[in-house]
């Protein structure tokens, strides 16, 4: 049963706007806060009522869940709203992909605030499924379906004052909406130049000094702690020094991580560091509302009743979550509407053969991408090679990395990579930021091709695959598929993602989270990957706007100089 929007609730109240706390009552009428009254000191063994949490920058698609499925997990953790960049689905399906996310978000019973993607495609050095023009961005603002311009990733073009980029920023300014930034490593005068165009946030800081430079330039820093990039430890002192200039985000949150927690995890970590409760709630609740002008209540009279009840201020266990006065989560039960999930996609080529993946090398050093556990940046090194066709070298952990244009038929792009630690088999995914072509890493061409073809067959998804004789029967589960191909017996586990090759069409996010977790474990226990999250790391190996060495469907790319480079 959905609770009435008219009720009175007594609890210990924490008000981060007026920065007061104590025992009292809140009156809710027609989904809005009618009155808040603190009548005395806090009572022992009494829950605490406060505003709900906001993720200030997230790509919902990275959870592999559509907005309604995402919401059903997020409210369990006290999240009432997200500032969401639909950049991923836009790269696959264009403006219709953005509208798809907005429509499902409105039907979900949760507060999704979407931006107009600024960089589709992210660069001209890769093939995406669509282009989002300035005219289409203006159209999204006219429709009032988006409330900010999403992260401006092409920071070299901003610094160069590229006319197309500046037109997009000007469109946002015309409609009075904020412009999000994305400028990893930018410091000093470059940071000031970037911010002077009107770009007002950055979530890519990995060092405190970089963040302070950007704050000095007038930008707000969104501290990111996601499934891949984890910058909280480097930046959390900003909570104490600049609470008015900081927000919290996850950026990319895979479904198994989302099941474990969301912004609530960063709140408890911040309190464990000794930061003031009011400062922590300011960055987790107040600052996003103020910066993005969100229609989210902060426990003030006349505002929507978007609030949470937590057991205590140590565990922050969420007992209940309200959105617009509706009890959307209580006593372990989610109370959000069941929404039918339609499928949209863009997938346009046939299966590949092992010989398509052959790579001929010369007797000379070759550039190697070096993946870093827990990071989306890469390093690079060189290794000596012999004349002939290269096969992945598991003894040196030099494997073959492949990116295949999934929109039109084209030869695969092939590079060499270290850091995955695979000893056998292959893993493949149609989640490959930002254009979402198919990306795969493997120990031999036959397994690579077979794994890639499983993703093609599913019209999008993730797959971990190994040969039957190398995988013990004790590891079999109901989610493991067994099949033969070209006289070879295989076992595989796949996570189908039919919505844009990015998201499941299931409303049951918990099941998808468990399936993804199983595939992730298989890539480690069966195939030997040494990474904490192999699929998440793989998905960023084609992200050209993050240094240093990456692979697009068009070739090896140096993200530091922002140009293609040769393998040898």
Would you give an account of this structure?
The chain is an alpha+beta fold and about 575 residues long. The chain contains 16 helices and 30 strands.
Low-confidence stretches: none
Shape: globular
Q: What is the averaged pLDDT score? A: 95
Please compute the radius of gyration using only Cα atoms.
24 Å
SSE-based structural type: alpha+beta
**Order of strands, widest sheet:** 19-18-22-21-24-23-25-27-26
Number of E strands: 30
> With helices defined by DSSP (H or I, 4 residues minimum), what is the helix count?
16
**Which range best describes the helical content: under 10%, 10-25%, 25-40%, 40-55%, 55-70% or over 70%?**
25-40%
**Into which percentage range does the β-strand content fall?**
25-35%
Straight-line N-to-C gap: 64 Å
> What can be said about the biggest beta sheet?
9 strands, mixed
């Amino acid at each position: 049963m959905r609770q009435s929007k008219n009720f009175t609730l007594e609890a210990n109240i924490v008000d981060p706007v007026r920065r007061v706390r104590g025992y009292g009552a809140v009156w809710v009428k027609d989904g809005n806060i009618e009155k808040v009254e603190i009548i005395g000191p806090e009572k022992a063994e009494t829950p605490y009522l406060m505003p709900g949490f906001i993720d200030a920058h997230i790509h919902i698609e990275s959870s592999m869940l559509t907005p309604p499925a995402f919401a059903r997990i997020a409210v369990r953790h006290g999240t009432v709203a997200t500032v969401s960049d639909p950049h991923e689905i836009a790269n696959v399906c264009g403006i219709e992909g953005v509208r798809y996310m907005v429509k499902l978000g409105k039907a979900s019973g949760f507060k999704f605030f979407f931006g107009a993607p600024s960089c589709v495609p992210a660069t001209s050095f890769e093939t995406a499924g669509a282009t989002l023009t300035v005219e289409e961005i203006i159209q999204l603002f006219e429709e009032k379906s988006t409330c900010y311009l999403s992260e401006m990733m092409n920071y070299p073009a901003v610094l160069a004052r590229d006319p197309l980029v500046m037109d997009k920023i000007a469109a946002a300014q015309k409609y009075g909406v904020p412009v999000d930034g994305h400028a990893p490593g930018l410091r000093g005068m470059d940071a000031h130049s970037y911010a002077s165009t009107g770009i007002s946030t950055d979530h890519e800081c990995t060092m405190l000094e970089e963040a302070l430079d950007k704050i000095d330039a007038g930008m707000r820093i969104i501290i990111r702690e996601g499934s891949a990039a984890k910058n909280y430890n480097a930046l959390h002192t900003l909570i104490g020094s600049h609470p008015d200039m900081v927000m919290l985000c996850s950026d990319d949150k895979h479904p198994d991580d989302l099941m474990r927690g969301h912004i609530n995890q960063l709140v408890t970590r911040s309190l464990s560091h000794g930061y003031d409760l009011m400062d922590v709630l300011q960055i987790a609740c107040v600052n996003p509302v103020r910066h993005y002008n969100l229609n989210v209540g902060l426990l003030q009279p006349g505002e929507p009743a978007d609030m949470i009840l937590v057991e205590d201020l140590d565990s922050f266990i969420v007992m209940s979550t309200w959105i617009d006065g509706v009890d959307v989560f209580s006593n372990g039960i989610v109370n959000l509407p069941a929404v039918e999930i339609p499928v949209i996609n863009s997938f346009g080529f046939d299966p590949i053969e092992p010989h398509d993946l052959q790579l001929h090398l010369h007797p000379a050093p070759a550039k190697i991408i070096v993946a870093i556990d827990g990071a989306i940046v890469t390093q690079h090194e060189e290794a000596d090679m012999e004349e002939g066709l290269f096969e992945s070298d598991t003894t040196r952990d030099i494997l073959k990395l492949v990116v295949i244009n999934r929109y039109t038929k084209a030869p695969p792009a092939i590079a060499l990579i270290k850091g995955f630690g695979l000893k056998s088999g292959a893993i493949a995914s149609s989640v490959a930021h930002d254009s979402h072509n198919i990306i795969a890493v493997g120990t031999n061409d036959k397994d690579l091709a077979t794994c890639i073809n499983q993703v093609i067959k599913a019209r999008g998804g993730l797959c971990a695959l190994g040969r039957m004789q190398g995988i013990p029967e004790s590891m079999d589960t109901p989610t493991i598929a067994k099949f033969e191909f070209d006289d070879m017996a295989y076992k595989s586990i796949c996570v189908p993602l039919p919505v844009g090759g990015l998201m499941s069409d299931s409303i049951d996010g918990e099941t998808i989270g468990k399936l993804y977790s199983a595939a992730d474990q298989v890539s480690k226990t069966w195939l030997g990957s040494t990474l904490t999250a192999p699929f998440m790391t793989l998905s960023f190996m084609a992200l050209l706007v993050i240094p240093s060495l990456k692979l697009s469907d068009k070739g090896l790319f140096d993200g530091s100089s922002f140009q293609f480079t040769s393998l040898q």
